[in-house]
Amino acid sequence: AKGQGKGRQVTYDPAMDQRSAEQSRLAADLRIALDTDQLHLLYQPIVEMPGGELFGVETLVRWTHPVRGPIGPAVFIPAAERTGLIVPLGAWILEESCRQAVRWRNELGAAAPQTVTVNVSARQLREAGFAEEVADVLARTGLPPEVLTVEVTETAVFDGGTALTELRAIAGLGVKIALDDFGTGHSSLGLLRTCPADVLKVDKSFVDDVTEGGQQAVVVAALIGICEGMGLRAVAEGVETAEQAAELQRLGYRYAQGFYYGRPMPAAAYTPAGRVAA
Ligand code: C2E
Ligand code: CA
Ligand code: CA
Ligand code: CA
């Protein structure tokens, strides 16, 4: 109450108060969403250039709030991370993605995505026994480990503690590791020495610059060289135009992901023809 705690002056920021109230409301609703089927998964194609044949997919979670309608993951994932809800949410995303990967392999055979990429947040990676959980999910679903790619950001790996240990254990299972948003963090190149990476996702901000004559165009050119030298698969993220695709290929890129090749889509959009239905 007013007048109390005089020595403890805290500046009142109504905007911040509103934000955190909003965050806790969101987290409370998300807890319900998890139990009531409000969440679903979309899969965005990762393609091989120049033809744009399907190589793999990345799982992207969606939430249709009963009152507010669709809420993007950029809004609710941070809330889920802060509250720890990302742990059960992430477990569900991982298991459902593995189940879907098995379904595709059964239904589509050779036309099935060769890899299913699941985003794993720092908070999940910090949980002791996360690698064990991955092993359990693979055993439960019968998915061959090499079909799963676990995608982490460099900040998640550098979160300290056991993250790197867990990641190494996951790699030890035969699961592929992708580094997301590569180049946007603080210690990207150093990370390549310690972290068991198989795939490097070159961030959209760099990809945008290849046709806009931006300063970062040189980063895109350098990263493909690093990937080739280190035996990593480079995936260019956020490819939106034919011009970007052409320039990336000229630089030596083979794998791309972005609206130009395909939006995030429901599992049923992947068909036996091996091509993504428009
Ligand atoms: P991200 O992992 O970097 O995922 C790529 C984001 O870029 C997705 O946004 C995707 O829809 C969008 N995108 C793909 N191609 C293009 C393009 O050509 N142009 C543009 N403008 N955008 C493109 P989305 O689905 O809204 O997800 C946003 C972020 O939320 C993700 O960024 C990821 O950090 C997080 N996220 C989404 N799903 C999950 C999940 O299942 N688990 C966790 N931990 N995080 C998730
Ligand atoms: Ca990602
Ligand atoms: Ca990304
Ligand atoms: Ca991102």
From TrEMBL:
Coiled coil: none annotated. It comes from the Bacteria. Residues 23-278 form the EAL domain. This is EAL domain-containing protein. It comes from Paractinoplanes bogorensis. The chain holds residues 473 to 750 of 750 of the full protein.
